[in-house]
Amino acid sequence: MVASQLSQPERTSRHAAGAKGATNGRKSADEVREDVKEYYGRIIQTKEDLQTSACCTEEKFPSYVKPLAGMVADEVASKFFGCDFCVPNVLENTSVLDLGSGSGFDCFIISQLVGETGRVVGVDMTDSQVELANKYTQWHADRFGFEKSNVTFHKGYIEKLDELGLDDASFDVVVSNCVLNLSPDKEAVLTEAYRVLRTGGEMYFSDVYALRRVPDNLKDDPVLRGECISGALYWNDFITLARKVGFTDPRVVQSEPYFVDDSLMDKLDGTEFVSTTFRLFKVSNLEATIEDYGQAVKYKGSIFSAPAQLVFDRDNIFEAGAVVPVSRNTFRMLRASRFRSHFDFYGCCSKKHFGPFPRSQPITI
Ligand SMILES: C[S@@+](CC[C@H](N)C(=O)[O-])C[C@H]1O[C@@H](n2cnc3c(N)ncnc32)[C@H](O)[C@@H]1O
Question: Which of 27, 182, 189 has most ligand 1 atoms within 8 Å of CB, for mutation?
Protein backbone atom coordinates (compact mmCIF):
# COMPACT_ATOMS: atom_id res chain seq x y z
CA MET A 1 0.00 0.00 0.00
CA VAL A 2 1.36 3.42 -0.82
CA ALA A 3 0.50 6.48 1.23
CA SER A 4 -1.53 8.06 -1.55
CA GLN A 5 -3.95 5.13 -1.46
CA LEU A 6 -4.87 5.91 2.11
CA SER A 7 -7.34 8.55 3.11
CA GLN A 8 -6.05 11.45 5.19
CA PRO A 9 -6.90 10.27 8.71
CA GLU A 10 -5.66 6.76 7.89
CA ARG A 11 -2.38 8.38 6.86
CA THR A 12 -1.88 10.11 10.22
CA SER A 13 1.48 9.14 11.67
CA ARG A 14 1.82 7.41 15.01
CA HIS A 15 3.05 10.55 16.71
CA ALA A 16 0.28 12.67 15.27
CA ALA A 17 -2.37 10.08 16.08
CA GLY A 18 -4.27 12.51 18.25
CA ALA A 19 -3.91 15.50 15.97
CA LYS A 20 -7.06 17.53 15.50
CA GLY A 21 -8.40 18.93 12.25
CA ALA A 22 -8.74 17.20 8.91
CA THR A 23 -7.09 18.80 5.92
CA ASN A 24 -9.23 17.45 3.10
CA GLY A 25 -12.80 17.89 4.28
CA ARG A 26 -12.66 14.51 5.96
CA LYS A 27 -13.02 13.99 9.68
CA SER A 28 -9.87 14.13 11.78
CA ALA A 29 -8.60 11.06 13.62
CA ASP A 30 -9.98 12.52 16.87
CA GLU A 31 -13.40 13.06 15.33
CA VAL A 32 -13.48 9.50 14.00
CA ARG A 33 -12.62 8.17 17.45
CA GLU A 34 -15.32 10.35 19.05
CA ASP A 35 -17.89 8.91 16.61
CA VAL A 36 -16.82 5.39 17.55
CA LYS A 37 -16.97 6.16 21.29
CA GLU A 38 -20.47 7.51 20.84
CA TYR A 39 -21.45 4.40 18.89
CA TYR A 40 -20.18 1.91 21.46
CA GLY A 41 -20.82 4.09 24.49
CA ARG A 42 -24.38 5.18 23.80
CA ILE A 43 -25.97 4.00 20.54
CA ILE A 44 -25.23 0.28 20.69
CA GLN A 45 -26.39 -1.16 23.98
CA THR A 46 -26.56 -4.85 23.11
CA LYS A 47 -25.65 -7.08 20.14
CA GLU A 48 -29.24 -6.87 18.91
CA ASP A 49 -28.68 -3.18 18.09
CA LEU A 50 -26.03 -4.01 15.46
CA GLN A 51 -26.94 -3.97 11.76
CA THR A 52 -24.38 -6.53 10.60
CA SER A 53 -23.32 -10.07 11.38
CA ALA A 54 -20.67 -8.35 13.52
CA CYS A 55 -21.37 -10.49 16.48
CA CYS A 56 -19.83 -13.85 16.89
CA THR A 57 -22.39 -16.00 18.64
CA GLU A 58 -21.31 -18.39 21.32
CA GLU A 59 -22.33 -21.40 19.18
CA LYS A 60 -19.19 -20.69 17.16
CA PHE A 61 -16.91 -21.17 20.14
CA PRO A 62 -14.88 -24.38 20.32
CA SER A 63 -16.30 -26.84 22.85
CA TYR A 64 -13.52 -26.25 25.41
CA VAL A 65 -14.38 -22.53 25.47
CA LYS A 66 -18.14 -22.83 25.98
CA PRO A 67 -17.92 -23.58 29.71
CA LEU A 68 -15.41 -20.74 30.14
CA ALA A 69 -17.74 -18.34 28.32
CA GLY A 70 -20.55 -19.57 30.57
CA MET A 71 -18.57 -18.31 33.58
CA VAL A 72 -18.63 -14.71 32.30
CA ALA A 73 -21.17 -12.32 33.83
CA ASP A 74 -24.37 -11.89 31.78
CA GLU A 75 -24.04 -8.12 31.67
CA VAL A 76 -20.52 -8.41 30.22
CA ALA A 77 -21.62 -11.08 27.72
CA SER A 78 -24.55 -8.96 26.57
CA LYS A 79 -22.04 -6.35 25.39
CA PHE A 80 -19.75 -8.71 23.55
CA PHE A 81 -19.40 -7.18 20.08
CA GLY A 82 -16.61 -9.32 18.64
CA CYS A 83 -16.86 -10.53 15.03
CA ASP A 84 -15.27 -13.90 15.66
CA PHE A 85 -13.56 -16.14 18.16
CA CYS A 86 -10.01 -14.86 18.54
CA VAL A 87 -8.51 -16.85 21.37
CA PRO A 88 -5.51 -18.94 20.27
CA ASN A 89 -4.26 -22.21 21.77
CA VAL A 90 -1.50 -22.51 24.37
CA LEU A 91 -2.14 -19.59 26.69
CA GLU A 92 -1.21 -21.14 30.06
CA ASN A 93 0.98 -18.73 32.08
CA THR A 94 1.21 -16.21 29.26
CA SER A 95 0.64 -12.47 29.22
CA VAL A 96 -2.05 -11.37 26.80
CA LEU A 97 -3.06 -7.89 25.65
CA ASP A 98 -6.55 -7.30 24.22
CA LEU A 99 -6.81 -4.24 21.96
CA GLY A 100 -10.30 -2.71 22.14
CA SER A 101 -11.39 -4.99 24.96
CA GLY A 102 -14.91 -3.55 25.23
CA SER A 103 -16.87 -5.01 28.13
CA GLY A 104 -14.06 -7.51 28.77
CA PHE A 105 -15.77 -10.65 27.50
CA ASP A 106 -12.71 -12.09 25.72
CA CYS A 107 -10.43 -10.97 28.57
CA PHE A 108 -12.45 -12.89 31.16
CA ILE A 109 -12.33 -16.04 29.00
CA ILE A 110 -8.59 -15.61 28.48
CA SER A 111 -8.15 -14.95 32.21
CA GLN A 112 -9.23 -18.56 32.84
CA LEU A 113 -6.91 -19.89 30.13
CA VAL A 114 -3.75 -18.07 31.24
CA GLY A 115 -4.50 -19.06 34.83
CA GLU A 116 -3.65 -17.25 38.02
CA THR A 117 0.02 -16.98 37.10
CA GLY A 118 -0.75 -15.42 33.73
CA ARG A 119 -1.76 -11.84 33.00
CA VAL A 120 -4.42 -10.20 30.84
CA VAL A 121 -4.55 -6.50 29.99
CA GLY A 122 -7.45 -4.89 28.15
CA VAL A 123 -7.33 -1.46 26.52
CA ASP A 124 -10.40 0.45 25.37
CA MET A 125 -11.18 4.14 24.85
CA THR A 126 -14.92 4.10 25.66
CA ASP A 127 -15.70 5.07 29.28
CA SER A 128 -18.79 2.95 29.75
CA GLN A 129 -17.11 -0.17 28.35
CA VAL A 130 -14.06 0.20 30.60
CA GLU A 131 -16.28 0.96 33.61
CA LEU A 132 -18.33 -2.17 33.01
CA ALA A 133 -15.20 -4.31 32.59
CA ASN A 134 -13.71 -2.89 35.80
CA LYS A 135 -16.96 -3.39 37.71
CA TYR A 136 -16.70 -7.13 37.08
CA THR A 137 -12.95 -7.66 37.49
CA GLN A 138 -12.95 -8.83 41.11
CA TRP A 139 -16.29 -10.59 40.60
CA HIS A 140 -14.66 -12.84 37.98
CA ALA A 141 -11.53 -13.43 40.05
CA ASP A 142 -13.77 -14.67 42.88
CA ARG A 143 -15.77 -16.79 40.46
CA PHE A 144 -12.61 -18.39 39.05
CA GLY A 145 -11.29 -19.02 42.57
CA PHE A 146 -8.30 -16.71 42.10
CA GLU A 147 -6.81 -15.01 45.14
CA LYS A 148 -6.13 -11.93 43.08
CA SER A 149 -7.41 -10.87 39.66
CA ASN A 150 -5.05 -11.44 36.75
CA VAL A 151 -6.92 -8.93 34.56
CA THR A 152 -6.38 -5.17 34.32
CA PHE A 153 -8.24 -2.71 32.13
CA HIS A 154 -6.83 0.59 30.89
CA LYS A 155 -8.80 3.40 29.38
CA GLY A 156 -6.81 4.65 26.40
CA TYR A 157 -6.05 4.47 22.72
CA ILE A 158 -4.72 1.39 21.03
CA GLU A 159 -2.66 3.66 18.78
CA LYS A 160 -0.80 4.97 21.85
CA LEU A 161 -0.03 2.04 24.10
CA ASP A 162 3.18 3.78 25.16
CA GLU A 163 1.07 6.41 26.95
CA LEU A 164 -0.43 3.62 29.07
CA GLY A 165 3.01 2.50 30.20
CA LEU A 166 2.89 -0.76 28.25
CA ASP A 167 6.53 -1.68 27.77
CA ASP A 168 8.38 -3.04 24.76
CA ALA A 169 8.41 -6.83 24.56
CA SER A 170 6.08 -7.28 27.53
CA PHE A 171 3.39 -9.57 26.03
CA ASP A 172 3.36 -13.08 24.60
CA VAL A 173 0.13 -12.61 22.67
CA VAL A 174 -1.90 -9.64 21.45
CA VAL A 175 -5.54 -10.36 20.64
CA SER A 176 -8.21 -8.07 19.26
CA ASN A 177 -11.76 -8.67 18.18
CA CYS A 178 -13.39 -6.43 15.61
CA VAL A 179 -11.47 -3.27 16.45
CA LEU A 180 -8.64 -2.49 14.00
CA ASN A 181 -11.18 -1.48 11.35
CA LEU A 182 -12.48 1.24 13.68
CA SER A 183 -9.10 2.89 14.13
CA PRO A 184 -8.25 5.95 12.06
CA ASP A 185 -4.54 5.04 12.29
CA LYS A 186 -4.12 1.34 11.68
CA GLU A 187 -0.40 1.56 11.10
CA ALA A 188 0.08 2.99 14.60
CA VAL A 189 -1.98 0.16 16.10
CA LEU A 190 0.03 -2.54 14.33
CA THR A 191 3.32 -0.80 15.11
CA GLU A 192 2.40 -0.65 18.79
CA ALA A 193 1.28 -4.29 18.81
CA TYR A 194 4.61 -5.28 17.29
CA ARG A 195 6.50 -3.20 19.85
CA VAL A 196 4.83 -4.69 22.93
CA LEU A 197 5.18 -8.29 21.70
CA ARG A 198 8.10 -10.40 22.82
CA THR A 199 10.14 -12.08 20.10
CA GLY A 200 8.32 -15.30 19.29
CA GLY A 201 5.02 -13.72 20.30
CA GLU A 202 2.05 -13.26 18.04
CA MET A 203 -0.86 -11.01 17.28
CA TYR A 204 -3.90 -13.25 16.84
CA PHE A 205 -6.96 -11.29 15.94
CA SER A 206 -10.26 -11.17 14.12
CA ASP A 207 -11.49 -8.25 12.10
CA VAL A 208 -13.54 -7.19 9.11
CA TYR A 209 -11.89 -6.74 5.69
CA ALA A 210 -13.25 -5.38 2.43
CA LEU A 211 -12.87 -7.32 -0.81
CA ARG A 212 -12.15 -4.04 -2.59
CA ARG A 213 -11.04 -0.62 -1.33
CA VAL A 214 -13.86 1.27 0.41
CA PRO A 215 -14.49 4.68 -1.21
CA ASP A 216 -13.28 7.61 0.90
CA ASN A 217 -16.71 9.25 0.96
CA LEU A 218 -18.08 6.36 3.04
CA LYS A 219 -15.34 6.36 5.66
CA ASP A 220 -16.74 9.19 7.77
CA ASP A 221 -20.28 7.83 7.95
CA PRO A 222 -20.62 7.19 11.70
CA VAL A 223 -22.99 4.24 11.27
CA LEU A 224 -20.94 2.53 8.56
CA ARG A 225 -17.78 3.12 10.60
CA GLY A 226 -19.40 2.01 13.86
CA GLU A 227 -20.74 -1.15 12.23
CA CYS A 228 -17.14 -2.09 11.35
CA ILE A 229 -17.73 -1.61 7.62
CA SER A 230 -16.38 1.61 6.17
CA GLY A 231 -13.15 1.65 8.18
CA ALA A 232 -12.35 -1.88 7.06
CA LEU A 233 -9.14 -2.28 5.11
CA TYR A 234 -9.06 -3.93 1.73
CA TRP A 235 -7.45 -7.23 2.79
CA ASN A 236 -4.48 -6.93 0.43
CA ASP A 237 -3.70 -3.48 1.87
CA PHE A 238 -3.78 -5.04 5.33
CA ILE A 239 -1.18 -7.63 4.27
CA THR A 240 1.08 -4.86 2.97
CA LEU A 241 0.68 -2.86 6.18
CA ALA A 242 1.33 -5.85 8.43
CA ARG A 243 4.55 -6.61 6.54
CA LYS A 244 5.60 -2.98 6.69
CA VAL A 245 5.56 -2.90 10.50
CA GLY A 246 7.50 -6.18 10.78
CA PHE A 247 4.91 -8.97 10.63
CA THR A 248 6.55 -10.49 7.57
CA ASP A 249 4.39 -13.54 6.97
CA PRO A 250 0.71 -12.96 7.90
CA ARG A 251 -1.28 -16.18 8.14
CA VAL A 252 -5.02 -16.59 7.65
CA VAL A 253 -6.55 -18.88 10.27
CA GLN A 254 -10.09 -18.63 8.99
CA SER A 255 -12.31 -16.34 6.96
CA GLU A 256 -16.03 -16.09 6.27
CA PRO A 257 -18.51 -13.64 4.72
CA TYR A 258 -19.55 -10.70 6.86
CA PHE A 259 -23.18 -9.88 6.22
CA VAL A 260 -24.55 -6.36 6.16
CA ASP A 261 -28.23 -5.40 6.53
CA ASP A 262 -29.93 -4.37 3.27
CA SER A 263 -30.48 -0.87 4.65
CA LEU A 264 -26.69 -0.34 4.74
CA MET A 265 -25.89 -2.40 1.66
CA ASP A 266 -27.41 0.22 -0.65
CA LYS A 267 -24.72 2.70 0.33
CA LEU A 268 -21.89 0.28 -0.32
CA ASP A 269 -22.09 0.01 -4.09
CA GLY A 270 -21.47 -3.72 -4.19
CA THR A 271 -18.47 -3.86 -1.87
CA GLU A 272 -18.42 -7.13 0.03
CA PHE A 273 -16.80 -7.90 3.36
CA VAL A 274 -15.32 -10.82 5.23
CA SER A 275 -14.58 -11.52 8.86
CA THR A 276 -11.10 -13.00 9.08
CA THR A 277 -8.77 -14.22 11.79
CA PHE A 278 -5.09 -13.59 11.13
CA ARG A 279 -2.07 -14.65 13.10
CA LEU A 280 1.03 -12.47 12.83
CA PHE A 281 4.23 -13.74 14.42
CA LYS A 282 7.00 -11.50 15.62
CA VAL A 283 9.86 -13.70 14.52
CA SER A 284 12.80 -11.80 13.12
CA ASN A 285 14.15 -14.19 10.49
CA LEU A 286 10.99 -14.85 8.50
CA GLU A 287 11.03 -14.35 4.75
CA ALA A 288 8.42 -12.62 2.61
CA THR A 289 8.12 -15.76 0.49
CA ILE A 290 7.38 -19.33 1.59
CA GLU A 291 10.48 -21.47 0.96
CA ASP A 292 11.23 -25.17 1.19
CA TYR A 293 14.35 -26.26 3.10
CA GLY A 294 13.30 -29.90 3.38
CA GLN A 295 12.12 -29.44 6.97
CA ALA A 296 9.31 -31.22 8.80
CA VAL A 297 7.53 -31.19 12.15
CA LYS A 298 5.47 -33.61 14.23
CA TYR A 299 2.71 -32.33 16.48
CA LYS A 300 2.76 -34.23 19.76
CA GLY A 301 -0.95 -33.85 20.47
CA SER A 302 -0.03 -32.26 23.78
CA ILE A 303 -2.18 -29.11 23.64
CA PHE A 304 -5.22 -29.75 25.81
CA SER A 305 -7.52 -27.74 23.54
CA ALA A 306 -6.35 -29.54 20.38
CA PRO A 307 -5.53 -33.15 21.27
CA ALA A 308 -6.13 -34.69 17.83
CA GLN A 309 -5.51 -31.85 15.44
CA LEU A 310 -4.02 -28.36 15.65
CA VAL A 311 -5.29 -25.79 13.18
CA PHE A 312 -2.27 -23.50 13.00
CA ASP A 313 -3.50 -21.69 9.92
CA ARG A 314 -5.62 -22.47 6.90
CA ASP A 315 -2.74 -24.25 5.14
CA ASN A 316 -1.15 -25.93 8.15
CA ILE A 317 -3.42 -28.32 10.00
CA PHE A 318 -1.32 -30.71 12.06
CA GLU A 319 -2.62 -34.18 12.93
CA ALA A 320 -1.16 -35.45 16.19
CA GLY A 321 1.65 -37.92 15.54
CA ALA A 322 2.04 -37.21 11.81
CA VAL A 323 5.37 -35.98 10.45
CA VAL A 324 4.58 -33.29 7.89
CA PRO A 325 6.77 -31.11 5.69
CA VAL A 326 6.63 -27.39 6.47
CA SER A 327 8.09 -24.26 4.95
CA ARG A 328 11.06 -22.66 6.68
CA ASN A 329 8.84 -19.82 7.87
CA THR A 330 6.35 -22.20 9.51
CA PHE A 331 9.22 -24.16 11.03
CA ARG A 332 10.66 -20.97 12.48
CA MET A 333 7.30 -19.71 13.79
CA LEU A 334 6.68 -22.97 15.61
CA ARG A 335 10.21 -23.24 16.94
CA ALA A 336 10.50 -19.62 18.13
CA SER A 337 7.11 -19.48 19.82
CA ARG A 338 5.16 -21.01 22.70
CA PHE A 339 4.29 -23.91 20.36
CA ARG A 340 7.88 -25.19 20.51
CA SER A 341 7.45 -27.77 23.27
CA HIS A 342 4.44 -29.27 21.48
CA PHE A 343 6.38 -30.25 18.35
CA ASP A 344 9.29 -32.41 17.28
CA PHE A 345 11.43 -30.69 14.67
CA TYR A 346 13.28 -32.34 11.81
CA GLY A 347 15.96 -30.62 9.74
CA CYS A 348 16.73 -27.77 12.12
CA CYS A 349 20.09 -27.03 10.51
CA SER A 350 18.99 -27.61 6.96
CA LYS A 351 20.68 -25.18 4.60
CA LYS A 352 19.71 -26.87 1.35
CA HIS A 353 17.04 -24.98 -0.52
CA PHE A 354 14.47 -26.92 -2.58
CA GLY A 355 12.68 -23.95 -4.14
CA PRO A 356 9.29 -22.47 -3.20
CA PHE A 357 7.42 -24.51 -0.61
CA PRO A 358 5.10 -26.77 -2.66
CA ARG A 359 1.91 -25.83 -0.89
CA SER A 360 2.65 -22.14 -1.07
CA GLN A 361 -0.09 -20.12 -2.69
CA PRO A 362 -0.91 -16.44 -2.76
CA ILE A 363 -2.72 -15.26 0.36
CA THR A 364 -6.38 -14.77 -0.38
CA ILE A 365 -9.30 -14.41 1.95
C1 LIG B 1 -16.81 -3.78 18.00
S2 LIG B 1 -16.37 -3.36 19.62
C3 LIG B 1 -15.52 -4.85 20.11
C4 LIG B 1 -15.28 -4.91 21.60
C5 LIG B 1 -14.65 -6.20 22.10
N6 LIG B 1 -13.43 -6.50 21.43
C7 LIG B 1 -15.62 -7.35 21.98
O8 LIG B 1 -15.28 -8.32 21.30
O9 LIG B 1 -16.70 -7.27 22.55
C10 LIG B 1 -15.06 -2.21 19.38
C11 LIG B 1 -14.42 -1.68 20.65
O12 LIG B 1 -13.18 -1.08 20.30
C13 LIG B 1 -13.02 0.12 20.99
N14 LIG B 1 -12.14 0.98 20.19
C15 LIG B 1 -12.33 1.34 18.90
N16 LIG B 1 -11.32 2.11 18.46
C17 LIG B 1 -10.47 2.25 19.51
C18 LIG B 1 -9.24 2.96 19.69
N19 LIG B 1 -8.71 3.66 18.70
N20 LIG B 1 -8.63 2.88 20.89
C21 LIG B 1 -9.20 2.17 21.90
N22 LIG B 1 -10.36 1.50 21.80
C23 LIG B 1 -10.99 1.53 20.61
C24 LIG B 1 -14.43 0.66 21.15
O25 LIG B 1 -14.51 1.54 22.24
C26 LIG B 1 -15.23 -0.62 21.36
O27 LIG B 1 -15.36 -0.94 22.71
Answer: 182
